[in-house]
Amino acid sequence: MNNDNLRFQVRQLSLDNDDLMLNETLFHNANGYLGVRSNFEEGYPDGYLSIRGQYINGFYDFAEMKQAEKLYGLVEEKQTMLNVADTQGIKLYINGEEFSMFDGEVVESSRTLDMGRGWSMREVLWRSPEKHEVRITVKRMASFHLLPLFTIEYEVESVNFDGELRLVSTHIGNVQNYFNPNDPRVAGETFQYILPVSAEFVGETSLLVSNTSKSGLQVASAVRHECSKAGQESRFIEDGTAIYEWKTELAPGEKATLVKYTVLSDSIRSASCRDEALKLMERVSAIGLNRLYEEQEKYLTEYWENCAVNIYGDDELSMAVYFNLYQLIQSVGKDAYSNIAAKGLSGEGYEGHYFWDTEMYMMPFFSLTNPEIAKSLIRYRHNILDQARDHARLMGHARGALYPWRTIMGKECSGYFPSGSAQYHINGDIAYAIITYYLLTKDTELMLECGAEILFETARLWLDAGHEHKGKFHIHNVTGPDEYTCLVNNNYYTNVLAQYHLQWASKFYHLLQEQDSGAFSKVIGKIGLTEAEIAAFREAAERMYLPYDEELDINPQDDSFLSKKKWDIAGTPKDKFPLLLHYHPLYLYRHQVCKQPDTVLAHFILEDAQKLSTIRNSFNYYEKITTHDSSLSTCIFSIMASKLGLHDKAYEYFGESSKLDLFNTHKNTKDGIHAANLGGTYMAIVYGFGGLRVKEQGLFIAPALPDLWEGYDFKIRFEDSLIQIVVRRGAFEVLLLKGTTKEIHIYGEKHTLKDRLQVELK
User: What are the tens digits of pLDDT across the range 682-732?
Assistant: First the structure.
């Protein structure tokens, strides 16, 4: 692993408002429980926009979702992730002059994200209007060792200044969420979701408690400070804000450091979040900052040892990949109450909702490198299974469970059902991810605990959503992954995934029965599953209708897709993309145009369902009519281009995917990272260039090396083993780093991996 690629730095910071908001995202700190956008501690002048936010994964309030017509079952209330507190504020005064990046002279400035040590750093050499110079270094960390903890280490070094240094730190509970009425991807209106209850000092710790307006939840934030030298300290509450002030003297060459500890606690996870916050702060005080830094680095050392993807020959691309993998570990929830929001914990885009993105784009990374986190993601889905059952009843189904398209606590948050609740494929997506986890781990214990119940209950839904017609099983009025084509009959992706889901529900029924009949009987008894239902699963799978056009040798996206007029993508002005912001949905639905891969994605995840010529012809057909308006798109096209031997095209698509956030190619990273694309980048290397597939028969590997790379390597976990694939020009190696001997398939041929295999690169 190249440690240089674990440090991303921007020098001479631009103070353009768009760049400031972008850097708030790129340098944010998160650990899966909490996230803090990287705002300037001192704030911005009036007139500047900022998304100043501090979030807890899975913590929410309810918000009204107005419907033009109150039709049965339409969602009228959604959940939204909350800005829970503002503990970033620190203002600096030297002899009364207030530090600002917009006043005086910024001689030097930089921001650094250290992905090996797990902190971000801001460095400024500032010359005040009175020509006093100080060097300011701010280090921020969201702890992986103690998830509720966020720290700021604020150091001031005098260059030529001699006099009074004053730091004023604020702890604000009266905060609001960001909104933009012109962008459907963020909240369109403002509302006071957090209602302050109390503000106090308990000893040296400020403690603020707030309630949500509707959801009945509570959050506590506690803040404590440490100073590096003697001085005058004061603490007071003013208009509900806790304020800490420190004054000291500073001479040329001397440094003064203020450490600000923040802990968050919420009532979802704690019976008394106030008491829990105080206990956590006591624990933090006993540990100390230096040890917290050591634990942070230790955690990330282990993380990178298991998951690092090294690319040789393209430093820019390598940096982008490391950035993406770091954001994944920052974003993923690590308990059964949280998941991975579409923007992680970096911003308020999509209001903190969880989608299918988790299972189809991000969970593969964790299943392959960190199965314990994958377990938590499955447990989260099990935790909201009752709400999925309720959702199925609301949608008219007497049995089974239907997961919501977007949610936080389990209830549907999608107000526009044609591209929301109609995406029944989410049931198959969740099932597919659980099956893949099992194939990689053989973890029957988790299947008996929660995985099997999810699989069976969601499989039941297909029997009611579909029906037999002329000897085939059809599924009508659903929406596939392509949201420019909605409410169709027999979407290929949905049908083939439902077929796979039903087949595996039957397989797990018999497999788990043989493994542990006692525990399995409890699962079956709980949900009342019968042998007759299992037989119905098998029969529906065998008769599943999969659209196929013999003349074109492709799988039509759905029954009506090929009869529509093709959209003129080349003739569409560039300022009209993404199409969803410039054309009425019905106009889009009448055309052959794809926002993102649909059938092409199905051919990736279930390649054995069709012959290679059909997969190739489908790729060529859909490539011409796909806009890639979704960040979930280019990574899948890269994977499939790799499979089809279109290596230059695979590389081009991969570049677009990997650089999306770090280089802000979609111009909206200010709202938060594109979390699904982060996982998609990983898949484009491992599943794409690496040719990895996880099947019932075992692991399959078929690597290829892009012409512009010298090589690459990655590690994966398979059952009890840690395996590394090292690809170089002309040959590649498969190394068994830990675990027992494995049978694997390389370019379709079976090999026994005892310690090392060397194979000629095709």
Answer: 999 999 999 999 999 999 999 999 999 999 999 999 999 999 999 999 999
Residues 229 and 334 in one domain: no
- Residues 219, 125, single domain; the answer is yes
Helices 517-527 and 452-465 cross at an angle (nearest 10°) of 40
Closest by CA to 274, choosing from 213, 333, 206, is 206
How is residue 627 annotated by DSSP? -
405 contacts 355 by C-beta, under 8 angstroms: yes
C-beta of residue 266 within 8 angstroms of C-beta of residue 56 = yes
User: Which domain, by its residues, includes 325?
Assistant: 310-354+658-762
**What are the structure tokens assigned to 472, written together?**
């085939």
| CA distances from residue 332 to 345, 431, 670 in whole angstroms, order as listed | 9, 19, 19
Q: Which phi and psi angles does 670 have, rounded to 5°?
A: -55, -30
For tokens 């998160």, name the residue: 30
Co-location of 139 and 154 in the same domain? yes
Q: Are residues 60 and 197 in the same domain?
A: yes
Q: What pLDDT score was predicted for residue 182?
A: 62
pLDDT in tens, 496-522: 999 999 999 999 999 999 987 789 999
Alpha-carbon distance 128 to 613, whole Å?
A: 69
- Residue 525, domain member (yes or no): no
* Phi/psi at 113 (5° precision): -115, 110
675-681-684 Cα angle (round to 5): 145
Give the count of domains, the chain: 2
Q: Do both 294 and 314 map to the same domain? A: no
Could you tell me if residue 99 is inside a domain? yes
Together in a domain, 198 and 338: no
Q: Where are the beta strands (DSSP E) in 273-325?
A: 310-312
Euclidean distance between CA atoms 347 and 754, whole angstroms: 46
User: If you average pLDDT over residues 591-603, what whole number do you get?
Assistant: 98
Among 376, 290, 308, CA closest to 58:
376
Buried-exposed string 228-252: b where 16+ CB fall within 10 A, e elsewhere: eeebeeebeeeeebbbbbbebebee
Verify that 172 and 226 share a domain, yes or no.
Answer: yes
Closest by CA to 737, choosing from 726, 749, 751, is 726
Contact 681, 635 (CB under 8 A): yes
Residues marked active site are found at 483
Residue 98 in contact with residue 128, Cβ under 8 Å? no
Q: What is the C-alpha end-to-end distance of the chain, expressed in Å?
A: 25
C-alpha distance from residue 251 to each of 93, 113, 600 (Å): 14, 30, 65
* 237 and 342, same domain (yes or no): no
Tell me if 358 sits within 8 A of 63, measured CB to CB: no
pTM: 0.97
C-alpha 528 chain-centroid distance: 35
Q: Burial letters for 25-53: b for 16+ Cβ neighbours within 10 Å, e otherwise?
A: bbbbbbbbbbbbbbbbbbbbeeeeebbbb
Determine the distance from the C-alpha atom of residue 102 to the mean position of all C-alpha atoms in its chain, rounded to a whole number: 34
Residues 13/109, Cβ–Cβ less than 8 Å: yes
Evaluate the omega torsion of the peptide bond into residue 578 and state whether it is cis, within 30 degrees of 0. yes
As a whole number, the mean pLDDT across the chain is 96
